[in-house]
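Here is the promised in-class demo. Please do not try to memorize the tokens; focus on the logic of going from shape to residues.
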């Protein structure tokens, strides 16, 4: 795959057709009201407190801003992106995690996207993993854009954030199945990570098996239609881990609603930026 001339796949073209039929067409029929209502929903800052005996004591109380599923493109443009970036900046987190689907379809808007995301800074770094939508067009453009903007893309690798004795952060590229997530996590090596970033919440199965204390994921958009007062009752039927926090033994998972979506409807499922307060038990 060349960096200079993206070769667009069948998957990209089918996603473009789906986007035209299920998003652009209904929005045009409704005179743009679908998109207007979608982006008018305020982005909520969701404070989440989690604890694990496996979390390193040196990082007790760490604050992580978790941003996901931006879907930069037709439904989420520059103005909305800046709202999200400004919201993350106001949190002043120790570390920022971006868990995939940075773009909705095309990687051509990556320069504009990363001009904004490049404004994000945190003492321990801004880490990025890719989602399925980032693979529709040209994932290398996304990875390169992230790196050039001062972000840290994690493509099946782990590294220490904050120096030699720092927090061990692992991140995997998009994967669909539990087995595929497990294989990618295995590639990260470096023993048991402290923080694990994956787009797909199914990766938590492998994280739990290894006793990783904290996993952050997105992908589901919280189901987009959820029961009032119970976000884990939602329209995602293919994921047991669909929204919010999950705790298994000493392993915690947070699945964020994310800020964007490919379909412009959210009911009892507001766009959010999560702020994880992580403690040592
Ligand atoms: Fe997504």
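The designed amino acids, position by position:
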């Amino acid at each position: 795959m060349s960096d200079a001339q993206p070769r667009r796949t069948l998957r990209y073209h089918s996603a473009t057709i789906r986007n035209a039929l299920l998003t652009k067409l209904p929005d045009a029929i409704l005179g743009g009201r679908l998109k207007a209502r979608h982006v008018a929903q305020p982005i909520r800052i969701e404070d989440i407190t989690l604890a694990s005996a496996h979390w390193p004591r040196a990082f007790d109380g760490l604050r992580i801003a978790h941003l996901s599923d931006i879907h930069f493109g037709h439904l989420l443009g520059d103005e909305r992106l800046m709202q999200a970036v400004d919201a993350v900046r106001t949190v002043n987190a120790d570390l920022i995690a971006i868990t995939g689907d940075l773009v909705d379809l095309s990687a051509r808007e990556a320069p504009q996207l990363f001009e904004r995301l490049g404004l994000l800074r945190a003492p321990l770094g801004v880490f990025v993993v890719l989602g399925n939508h980032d693979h529709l067009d040209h994932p290398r453009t996304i990875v390169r854009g992230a790196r050039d903007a001062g972000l840290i893309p994690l493509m099946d690798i782990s590294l220490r954030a904050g120096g030699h004795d720092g927090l061990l952060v692992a991140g995997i590229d998009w994967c669909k199945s539990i087995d595929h997530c497990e294989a990618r996590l295995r590639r990260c090596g470096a023993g048991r990570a402290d923080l694990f970033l994956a787009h797909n919440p199914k990766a938590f199965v492998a994280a739990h098996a290894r006793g990783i204390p904290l996993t952050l994921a997105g992908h589901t958009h919280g189901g987009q239609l959820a029961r009032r007062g119970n976000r884990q009752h939602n329209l995602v039927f293919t994921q047991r881990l669909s929204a919010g926090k999950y705790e298994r033994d000493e392993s915690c998972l947070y699945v964020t609603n994310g800020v964007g979506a490919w379909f412009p409807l959210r009911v009892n499922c507001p766009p959010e930026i999560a702020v994880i307060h992580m403690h040592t038990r």
